[in-house]
Amino acid sequence: MARIKYYYDTETCKYERVKVSTWDVVLNFMGFMFVSVLIAFGLVLAYFFIFDSPKEQILKQENRALRDSLNNWQREISLQRDYVAYLQQRDERIYRQIMEADPLPSSVREMGMGGADRYKKYRELDLPEVLTDTRKKIDKLNKEMYAQSLSFDEIEELAENKNKMLASIPAIQPIRNKELTRLASGYGLRMHPIYKVRKMHWGIDFSAPRGTPIYSTGDGKISRVVRSNKRTGYGNYVEIDHGYGFKTRYAHMQTISVRVGQKVSRGETIGKVGNTGGSTAPHCHYEIMKDGKKVDPILYMIMDVTDEEYQKLLDLASIENQSLG
């Protein structure tokens, strides 16, 4: 039931019934609709500002997941860079010093990773700057790891060569001499057993009974085998090329058990002690050549002896006695 409205008429001093025209009804309805539309629009705006749509919720979840992943990647990159820095430090301060290698050139460690437009595609995609920075960090880390791998390859090769060199250097006595009593004559001016004059003796004589085994003093390859019936010179002898500029000679042998081109290891038997050539008693005449020059073998007999034993060998080798041949 519609509500009836009245108003007070001051001229008649009576309450008169309010008469509503069609135009008033239209205006009232339009005003009501306008206010309703405004309220509805405001509610819709409030809803969109306060509440996320399902699509927005999905996108926000994906963004949170990507942000967490990015943070994890950055932490992992930081840890990996710390580890690479640790490897670089050990490489420079330990490995390369042990191997007596020069430091890795900075030009290798700081090698380029492409031109100025390397990251242009990221800018064209309008990606956030943090993604570009992350890509740069990853590229720098890859570069450092690659450079370090090159260094380790070089160190590995140096270590292999070092081991080969250490095994090749003639560093033991050519015959068994535990009691240190077989060193008969050293390197230097000695009385020649036949000519009875002071003459340069280019090696060390080890006296031993005939048939005593003679050993290679380092890894190498047999470069020369000579069998001679003459009563002068080295008689039967063997030369070994050890590489790295080292050669050794074993003279006055009774028998030879190796052939030219054969590879031998340190401590391997190459023949037996004899009295051939210009020799006055059974012994092994032992020489070392370094870069084509004969050197004092006693300087290299450092393996399988203590400091005290080595000093005794030095004392015996320094005695200016008569050589055996």
TrEMBL record:
<dbReference type="InterPro" id="IPR050570">
    <property type="entry name" value="Cell_wall_metabolism_enzyme"/>
</dbReference>
<dbReference type="Pfam" id="PF01551">
    <property type="entry name" value="Peptidase_M23"/>
</dbReference>
<keyword id="KW-0472">Membrane</keyword>
<dbReference type="InterPro" id="IPR011055">
    <property type="entry name" value="Dup_hybrid_motif"/>
</dbReference>
<dbReference type="GO" id="GO:0004222">
    <property type="term" value="F:metalloendopeptidase activity"/>
</dbReference>
<protein>
    <submittedName>
        <fullName>Peptidase M23</fullName>
    </submittedName>
</protein>
<feature type="domain" description="M23ase beta-sheet core">
    <location>
        <begin position="200"/>
        <end position="297"/>
    </location>
</feature>
<keyword id="KW-0812">Transmembrane</keyword>
<dbReference type="InterPro" id="IPR016047">
    <property type="entry name" value="M23ase_b-sheet_dom"/>
</dbReference>
<feature type="transmembrane region" description="Helical">
    <location>
        <begin position="25"/>
        <end position="50"/>
    </location>
</feature>
<keyword id="KW-1133">Transmembrane helix</keyword>
